[in-house]
TrEMBL record:
PANTHER family, sorted: OS08G0374000 PROTEIN-RELATED, PHYTOHORMONE-BINDING PROTEIN
InterPro entries: Bet_v_I/MLP, Bet_v_I_allergen, Plant_def-hormone_signal, START-like_dom_sf
Domain of life: Eukaryota
Family: Belongs to the BetVI family.
This protein's name: Bet v I/Major latex protein domain-containing protein
Organism: Salix dunnii
Biological processes per GO annotation: abscisic acid-activated signaling pathway; defense response
Domain Bet v I/Major latex protein, first and last residues per copy: 3-150
SUPFAM superfamilies: Bet v1-like
A single MF term (Gene Ontology): abscisic acid binding
GO CC annotations, alphabetized: cytoplasm; nucleus
């Protein structure tokens, strides 16, 4: 049975800039943004839109995973919604049979965006033994916010 965890966070970046970073520029931004977490990223298929496949090779600060392939399974430019599903490695090597993160971006002001995050997952392991939490996703978002604010200035 697929379960969900939801959270949200406000960031001080305009929705259009954030959308471009999540969509078309993700593979270029991640290694610059968090080089100790993501050593490099490659777009194996697609153009950043629907059905694009990314390969993320993890850096030295991630001890439990070496890589993860993710497919863009949702991509709606009109409502600024992107979903990334793990298709190989990473979380799938740690007890999950399904792991997807969806980001919904909503403008809340001239330089502010609300990000609603939904993590859907399925696991055969006991719930309390799974390393699932939203804190790593929130840290990722804060790193992206800081990166985009510093690049734009």
């Amino acid at each position: 049975m697929i379960k969900e965890v939801k959270t949200q966070v406000n960031v001080g970046v305009e929705v259009g800039v954030l959308w471009k970073a999540f969509g078309k520029d993700l593979k270029d931004i991640l290694p610059k943004m968090v080089p100790n977490l993501v050593k490099d990223a490659d777009m194996l298929e697609g153009d950043g839109g629907l059905n694009t496949v990314y390969l993320f090779n993890f850096g030295p600060d991630i001890k439990t995973m070496t890589y993860q392939k993710e497919r863009v399974t949702e991509f709606d430019e009109f409502v600024h919604r992107i979903g990334l599903e793990v298709i190989e490695g990473g979380h799938l090597n740690h007890g999950f049979s399904h792991y997807k993160t969806t980001f919904q971006l909503t403008s809340t002001g001239e330089q502010e965006t609300l990000i609603d995050v939904t993590i859907s997952y399925e696991s055969q392991a006991e719930e309390d033994t799974m390393p699932l939490n939203t804190s790593s996703t929130l840290v990722f978002i804060k790193h992206m916010e800081n990166y985009l604010m510093n690049v734009a200035t």
